[in-house]
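# step 3/5: fold
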Amino acid sequence: MFIYKFRTHKLILSILTGLLLVLSWPARGFPFLIFFAFIPLLFLEDHINSLKYKVRARTFFVHAWLSFLIFNLFTTWWIMYATLPGMIAAVILNSLFMTLPWLLMHLSRRILPSRQGPVSLIMFWLAFEFLHGRWELSWSWLDLGNVFAGYPAWVQWYAYTGTAGGALWILAINILLFLAIKQMRKGWFEARKARINALMALSLFIVPAMFSFHTWLRYEEDASPTHVVVVQPAQDPYDPAVSQQEVAERVEHMIALADEKINPATRFVVTPEGANPRGIWRHEAEMHYTIRRIREHQEEHPGVTWLLGSFVYAFYDDEDDIPASARLHQQHNRFYDVFNAAVMIPPAGDLQYHYKYKLVPGIERMPYFTLLRPLGRLVDRFGGIAGSLGTSESQEVMISPEQIRIAPSICYESIYGDYTRGFMLHGASMLFIMTNDGWWRDTPGYRQHNQYARLRAIETRRSIARSASTGISAFINQRGETIKETAWWEATAIAADINKNHRLTFFSRSGNYLGRFATFLGALFILYMISQRIIGRQGSKK
């Protein structure tokens, strides 16, 4: 009977944490719940730690993994519309990765001689998010700080910390509330500690929130407007153009939508990821039908620069360093790469290219392709390609004829704050996001993606023009406030005057310094744990 109750108790706590995380998450959740979401899991860990001589650490690992499995499944199930095997792999693996910092915290409490509370969790979690955004299995969609994407007035201080500051905020309040509740059940002295921890938790919530609301109300953009038109063609990504007539019809449709909003002040037309119905060979790009048609349109509207989403194919010369992603063109006997690209088409002058750097694992990139090349056929089953797309070697801005520097971001790239701020270091004054969210159909996926863009605006204090083929196209100001947006699957265009900004935020200059510092401390802490484990074993042998 005791064993049954013990197992049920653990299961309930695990499920409760998972559900609270789900209910707090964008696009329809309420983020305030996340300040309580980890309390059940902290009680579970504390209970198992008190029985560490009877219950193994793997018991906690399994139950913590269940919490994050629920979280991942019910917030990112929509990946199945693009790739069911990929969704299953992403949910299972990311749940395991999220469990690791909790396991390290639990092990530290078992190993280290002094009384170790759950505070080390903050260090391990920040290090996890930092590292998880930098390897080829990267999936930063569920970084804790993203939970406030729908409530930008709460987190204006992301301009100083990025989303890592949000994770720190969430974990610190959860831990303080957990300690307060735990101490409240004990004697008078412990109850006094409980009141102190509860007061600290309340203060920790109020002070950043009040600072944020104050910034929200007082922040003013410098008046430096640029008129931008965003096109949303509402093309089904599962229905590609095949014939030349279909290609021409889609290009004409896109131009017609833009013409509805273009005026003499317009400087940019932004189209979504993959807006060009067919890919472009870079060495003959000016002869491509879409480019020629846009050039003709620019003659009617001088001064308008287009940003076109398109696949780009590029040959390598014999003397080039051929990357692992390259493939052999059988007819020409030359290696070439395929890029998911943004192409800037100025009214006059050469085309400019940005190649997507942050590729979606399993869809656009086989992780560690050099080592796993024999598994290429498996990627096909994931809905991707038997290999990987090419990536850019450097992070460069696009420069218009008026010398306006643009940060181009293609789809998945826009969830990476630390990557996005790199464009600002190169002088970008506005951010253009080009995406195609129709792969996920009418699900929370495209709404989450749209709201995450608001955090990039806060972090960098850059106005955003967001063009989505079948998601939500929008204009977002430097406070992260949506000033205009489209409906789902609506063929339309929208226009707005958005302000440029050349000043760098603290986050733009410093990046994810919280993550870097936590990684350094975490590495030292793990070495200390290992040394104490060795010393403990040697002591037990004497």
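# step 4/5: annotate
The first strand starts at residue 225 and ends at 232.
# step 5/5: archive (pending)
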